[in-house]
Amino acid sequence: MTTIYIIRHCAASGQEPDAHLTEAGREQALSLAGFLSDAGIKRIISSPYTRAVQSIEALAKALAVEVETDERLKERVLSSGNLPDWFEQLKNTFDDRDLVLEGGESSTQALERISQVVRELESSDCERTAIVTHGNIMALLVSRYIDGFGFEEWRRLSNPDVYVLTIEPSGTSCKRLWNEGTPDD
Prior knowledge:
By secondary structure, the protein is an alpha/beta fold. Helices cover 38% and strands 21% of the residues. Strands 3-2-4-1-5-6-7 form a seven-stranded mixed sheet, with helices on both faces. α1 runs parallel beside α2 (50-63) and α4 (107-122) crosses α5. The longest helix is centred in the middle third of the chain and has 16 residues, at 107-122.
């Protein structure tokens, strides 16, 4: 059995790769560490973006586990240009998974990128791993396992957010564990 905790980063000061966590985000990271400290996580892989790494540092320290970074977990690039209507364009990419905006990657391409990480973890010896990523690409990954998970569900993601993906010979399941800073019941 392989268990993967899919974590969206905590509240950050911006969208740039070097954006840091806010004060609230630092508090969320501590709460997240407390919530996941007994989950049996043996490996942590994060997007290289500062806000993602900072979101998981407290847990890594508590577990004495090194934070590995992987470029495939970074946020999806919607477009290289400034999109005044980015929200509508993002919705369009959920409706048409092969839509590619100038300088960006399609939903299909981004999903394949993060799915490579999951496939590697599934065939690794580590049974419990946490991956730390970003909202858009997280939503794409979760949509692979939860039917109907799309744009509206992306809009309802929180910072942080946690889903658990369980892969067993009998099947795969994915469910939300954390919402709005509190564990889901």
